[in-house]
User: Fold this.
Amino acid sequence: MNTGRALLRQGLLLPAVLTGLAAFMLVASLRSGATGAGFWLLAVAFWLVSWQLTARLSALKLPDAGRQKLADLAVPVLFGLTILLLWEVIVRGLQVPSVLLPPPSAIGARLATSGSILWADFRQTVLKAVLAGYVLGCGTGFLAAILIDRSPFLQRGLLPIGNFVSALPIIGVAPIMVMWFGFDWQSKAAVVVVMTFFPMLVNTVAGLSAAGAMERDLMRTYAGSYGQTLVKLRLPTAMPFVFNALKINSTLALVGAIVAEFFGTPIVGMGFRISAEIGRMNTDMVWAEIAVAALTGSLAYAALAALERSVTFWHPSYRAR
Assistant:
């Protein structure tokens, strides 16, 4: 009762009830095959009330921090479920061929029935190629940035080359890596290293130079050595830049490995499966692989963002919240 009164005071109860009712009626109409004019009016009404509910949830300010986090989490969840239901409604209501765009229910069924294949592809692409290339690329980029910071010559000479290499198209780099390292996951890891090395390098170099002149003068006043200044001042200051590179590279690495698998791979892998199944017109399997890749990238990004918050809690962007 108290929860219902709280929702009513916040203006959430009515749009929540209307959204649930409209969603139930849409699903019932799809099952019965009734997709006339009333069905589309109902779909528009569902979109409007769910929009209102999401907008009011996003503007909600609660005194309790735990409830506020739940409300913040409910906004993307509700928005995502709304998009999925409208996708289902539009595809099935307009009878779009599954070859062009399968409904989410078909993609979910494929996810449920092809778990062993999806796991094998995930293990080949993510746990081998992406993970190895990501660790090597980010690690070597970070170490190279520290070395470059000690040498103005390298900073002026290597950074322009890094910007040039980072602009190379992946479809040009991937075949070369396959020729150099073979068809297995090692060549895909090499592509990931090329894609992640220079973003980490550039961001870390920028972060190391972000410490203010007053802080550096203070360290010199305390007779701090280069190593002490690096560890106690410059690396902590550079952490937001480093995590920015880590988050960018988490998506770049996955995309790079999948695209690299188009140019030669054993008969396993997410890129191989997408290329093979699209040739067979099995678009539900293609979308299942895309869903796994999107979920993996989102979880990796979220994990890095949570780690960043725990490491850079002192940053003004977090203290202001």
Remarks:
- The mean pLDDT is 83.
- The chain has 14 helices and no strands.
- Residues 115-150 form the longest helix (36 residues).
